[in-house]
Design a protein that fits this description.
alpha/beta
Length: 299
């Protein structure tokens, strides 16, 4: 396994290698987050959600991640259930290769993953129910009462199991950032009181209080809304943000929002990396231009 984790010194070293991006305010720090406040993170991160669980998609993601690492992106995001654990493994391959070639060091890269949804292992089994029963129920990882919708769990023993599986998939001694994956899914069957207890214990507080207490930074997901924001945006969006096309405007909108640390974009092909980094050569939109989007109207 690769030792280490993202550090302030390492991420600053990485930032300093990309002067044009740094001068355009592409890198930012996440704010008063315990253990992470001094990290320098790219305002665009590479996501690994979509794609078939096959070798062609594996190759595309590995190439895209490799290109991202040498192009200025130092935030990589995945989840254990993405493409049946294959996306995490693609990150491992690309990161191992980059470190072996001295392209990056481990302390320069923030690797994020998440758990909550049950996941197959690489491929869809012939008997999905039997797989989950044998893998999780029969060996005591999950109490069936802890499952919501037959597919979501945030019980502590389950999360411990998932963290270890993700560490193995990613080839990392330390996962820099671990999310609960869509924890609100629990509300379909669990009361809000039980849900809050699962997340923050018996000390009740508002979401804003919890964010302040825990030191939560904001990472934007679905920046391009799975491709739906790459076309058809109102013309005033382009006038306010000044990018060349709708995809660039959507990226610029997300990473310009006050409080956003990183905007995640799925990049399963090297061409996605090249295209999605074009807005990064310009500074984020200022507050005044960004606010115009909420007052502008088509004329």
């Amino acid at each position: 396994m690769i030792a280490g984790y993202a550090t302030a010194q390492g991420t600053a070293r990485y930032r300093d290698r990309f002067r044009s991006l740094s001068e355009a305010d592409f890198y930012r720090q996440p704010g008063p987050i315990p253990g992470a406040a001094d990290l320098w993170l790219s305002s665009i991160g590479l996501g690994t959600y979509l794609g078939e669980p096959d070798e062609a998609a594996d190759a595309g993601y590995t190439e895209a991640i490799s290109l991202a690492l040498v192009s200025g992106i130092n935030v990589l995001d995945s989840a254990i259930n993405y493409r049946h654990q294959r996306s995490e493994r693609n990150i491992r391959v690309a990161l191992e290769q980059a470190i072996q070639k001295n392209v990056v060091r481990r302390d320069e890269i923030l690797v994020c993953t998440k758990a909550g949804y049950l996941s197959f292992d690489a491929n869809l089994p012939s008997d999905p129910s039997g797989y989950f029963a044998g893998e999780y129920i029969e060996n005591g990882v999950i109490d069936p009462k802890e499952l919501v919708g037959g597919m979501h769990c945030i019980a502590r023993d389950y999360l411990r199991d998932q963290i270890e599986r993700s560490r193995a998939n990613l080839g990392l001694e330390c996962i820099d950032l671990f999310y609960l994956h869509n924890p609100e899914t629990q509300l379909a069957e669990v009361s809000r009181e039980v849900f809050r207890d699962q997340l923050v214990g018996k000390k009740h507080m508002s979401l804003f209080e919890a964010a302040a207490h825990l030191g939560v930074a904001v990472v934007g997901s679905a920046t391009l809304y799975q491709g739906r924001l790459t076309h058809g945006l109102p013309s005033f969006v382009g006038k306010a943000l000044g990018m060349k096309n709708d995809a660039e405007n959507a990226i610029q909108f997300s990473r310009s929002a006050t409080g956003i640390t990183t905007s995640l974009i799925g990049m399963g092909h090297p061409g996605h990396v090249t295209a999605n980094l074009k807005p990064a050569l310009l500074p984020p939109a200022g507050d005044e231009d960004w606010q115009k989007l909420f007052t502008a109207r088509e004329r």
